[in-house]
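Practice record 12: protein with beta-D-mannopyranose.
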Amino acid sequence: MNNQYAELFKRNKLNPILSANNWPYPINSVFNAGATLLKDGTTLLLCRVEERSGISHFCVARSANGVDGWIIDKKPTLRPEADKFPEELWGIEDPRITYVPELKKYVVVYTAYTRDGPGVALAQTEDFKTFERFGIIMPPDDKDAALLPRRINGSWAMIHRPVSAPRAHMWISYSPDLKNWGEHTLMMNARKGAWWDANKIGLSPPPIETPEGWLLIYHGVKLSCGGCIYRLGLALFDLEKPEICLKRGREWIFAPEEPYELNGDVGNVVFPCGYTLAKDGDTLNIYYGAADTCIGLATASLRELLDWLDKNCEE
Ligand code: BMA
């Protein structure tokens, strides 16, 4: 075979593993799900469900093996509540879940679609049944946010993606209490020109802590006359100063190729918001929205990702 490249993300044979047809109530699409492993080993996906109004809410799907046999909540798990939280006027989107051992809670950071564009909102939960909302924590335009699972030098840390049109870069901010955020620091720039990650980048799933640093899977948006292509790349950041980039991959590692990734409501999109790490400490299950229509699963080896980054990072 010609044109061979390292296949770091291996798609599951059952892909797409979840789509609107699986849902217990009528919806348009299901994609961009946050993910976590519960204490009993169950995989929990907090799925973004788009209703046939265009507004999104979240719905929980649980599976014993993280691949099939999904048990889906019979009705929406978390709906936008615009009367109490006006920033949720046009829905809630793209949740990222971080389990925080210090709080013994899951912190969900998501996009609240406000009258003035997307902003970042936060809620915490112990059981994915009741949620304590903190409201909006980053004003619009801002999205693609996730909390780090532990404090950095005494402060909570959150990666997010403010927009200063026409460019959008990744930032990190710090907080004493998860409500008030400051020390806003640029973390990584979008490249320029013809690069796959020119002009617009953002965090995809929450950062992965490894002995070598925080491994980030991020998306780059290439804009051409044919539209946008959402692809994924890798970068590594300092464990105690996460705004410091240690390595950044030159090439993308995962891109839309399969029919369900190329075609859908928004074609040419792979967009993971969550991963789980298997008991072996190496196998990553990456759950990604495909073409803003369904959910795919790809498996990768953490060791292989770090080795690839070592050999393929920019000078
Ligand atoms: C991004 C987000 C995602 C979406 C993607 C492709 O900006 O809004 O929710 O999957 O665009 O449409």
